[in-house]
Amino acid sequence: MFPFAWLIGLVLPACAATGAGGLPVPPVMDMARIERPATPNTALAGPAVPGQYAATLSPPDIVTPLYQVPAARLFAAIGAVAAAQQRIFVAAAYPDLKQEHWVVRSAVFNFPDLVTAQVVAQGPDASTLVLYARSVYGRSDLGVNQNRLRAWLAALDTLLTPPMGLTPATGLTPTTRLTPTTERDAP
Fold first, then answer.
1. pTM for this model (two decimals)
2. Distances (CA, A) of 109 to 15, 66, 91, 102
3. Each residue's pLDDT tens digit, 137-147
4. Is residue 73 a contact partner of residue 86, using CB atoms and an 8 Å limit?
5. Which H/E stretch holds residue 121?
6. Which domains, and CATH codes, for the chain?
C-alpha cells in the first residue's frame, strides 16, 4: 500500500485497509434487480435486455454473449481471469450460486472498487455472465470500471477460445496431416 493511502484513510476509511478489508462482506446479490446509481461510477456487462437470455433488468453498458460452455466452466474461467489481475482480493464467494465478489484496489491511493460476477446456466452446455463493477468512493470513476470489464471480457474470450485450428480434446483438427520435413522423411 502506498504511504499516502494511509493519510487518505483518515477521511475515507476503506483506503487505509488492505486486501478486502475495511469493507463489509458482500451478501449474495440479486443481479436481476441491480439498481444503478445516477452517478457515472458503475459499469454493467451482461446479456442484452430485453432478450431470451437476459440476466438483469438494467440495460448493460457492455453486451455479453451466450457462452457455449457449461456454467461451471464459465464460473471457473471468470475466476481465473480475476485471479490474474493486480491488486484484486476475493471479498465473498458463493460457488453454489455461481457468484463471486472482489475488491480491486487502485495502485496509488488504494481506492476500493467492487466487482461482482454472476454466471447463469442456460442449459447443460451454455451459460450467461453478468459483471457489475462500481466504485466505493467518488462520483465518477473516469471510465475505470467499464475499461476493467472490457479487459476482463477480452481475457475471458482468450481463455475460452482454443487456438485457431485446434480442438480442445486432441489439439488436432480432423484434417490435420503430418507433412514430411526432409527428403529422407518423404515416402
1. 0.79
2. 7, 37, 19, 18
3. 888 888 899 99
4. no
5. strand 112-121
6. 39-163 (3.30.530.20)
